[in-house]
Amino acid sequence: MASEFNLVGYVPPTYNTLRTTLLQKERIHVERLMDPIKTTWKEKGVTIVSDGWSDTQRRPLINFMAVTELGPMFIKAVNCEGNVKDKFFMTDLIKEVIMQVGPQNMVQVITDNALVCKAAGMLVEAQFPHIFWTPCVVHTLNLALKNICDPSHIESNKDAFIECHWITEVGDRALMIKNFILNHNMVATMFNNIAPLRLLGVAETRFASVIIMLKRIKLLKRSLERLVLSEEWSTFREYDQAKASLIRTAILDELWWDKIDYILEFTSPMYDMLRFADTDKPSLHLIYDMWDDMIEKVKSIIYRHERKELYEESSFYDVVYAILIDRWTKSSSPLHCLAHSLNPRYYSEAWLNGALGRQPPHQDVELSVERNKCIRRYFPDGEARKAVNAELARFSGQMDIFGSADSIEDRGTEDPKMWWLIHGASAPNLQKIALKLLGQPCSSSCCERNWSTYSFIHSVKRNKILPSRAEDLVYVHTNLRLLSRKSELYRKGETKLWDIGGDRFDPFDGAEELEIASLSLDEPEMEAMIIEDE
Question: I want to staple 339 with a disulfide (CB 3.0 to 4.6 A). Which of 285, 344, 409, 534 is the partner?
Answer without folding.
Answer: 285
